[in-house]
Amino acid sequence: MNNIHRKRTWSSQTQLGDYFGISAKKVGSILNHHGLRHGRRATNQAIQSGWAMLTPLRDGTPHYLWNSEKVVGLIGQHYVLLDEVDYWVQLIQKRFRGFNRLLRMGKPDEAHKLPIFDDLPNSLYHEVMAKISQQQEAA
């Protein structure tokens, strides 16, 4: 069982999607479907009942974090939580795609600042890398 979501009390839609291997947009659709979000904003009810928290960006743009435990339970009604190895495999692959995108955009300095492996637990490193290698060989 993947307990990675329990390390964060509050998560972004992107982080929540990573636990299941789905997009932030898909997470938003689920939140909308359950009346916790309307458009791109958390509902007042979601905020008042502890499902969401408003955390504006530096420029004042509204941004919401979501209660990890509650929302993971909700998404789990629709999708299967990734095991810890698969979570890290998809997260590192996603980070590599971002790295390559920045290189293609001619931004190597930004690309090399990305924390691709920084938070990968040492105990999972070999298993995660082996699975990534297997997937690349199969492709």
What features would you describe in this structure?
There is one protein chain. The chain is mostly helical. The protein has two domains: 72 residues, no CATH class; 55 residues. It has seven helices and five strands. The strands form two sheets. It has a three-stranded antiparallel β-sheet. Helix 1 crosses helix 2 and helix 5 packs across helix 7. The longest helix has 21 residues. The protein is globular, with a radius of gyration of 17 Å. The mean pLDDT is 92.
Q: Helix share of residues?
A: 40-55%
Helix-strand pattern, N to C?
EHHEEHEEHHHH
Structural class: mainly alpha
Strand fraction band? 5-15%
Gross geometry? globular
Estimate the mean pLDDT confidence.
Answer: 92
Features:
139 residues, mainly alpha, 2 domains, 3-stranded antiparallel β-sheet, two-stranded antiparallel ribbon, globular
Q: Could you write a compact summary of the structure shown?
A:
The chain has 7 helices and 5 strands.
Question: What order do the helices and strands come in, and which of them pair?
Answer:
Blueprint lengths: L9 E2 L1 H8 L3 H10 L3 E2 L2 E2 L1 H5 L3 E3 L9 E4 H8 L8 H21 L3 H4 L13 H14 L1
Helix pairs in contact: 1-2, 5-7
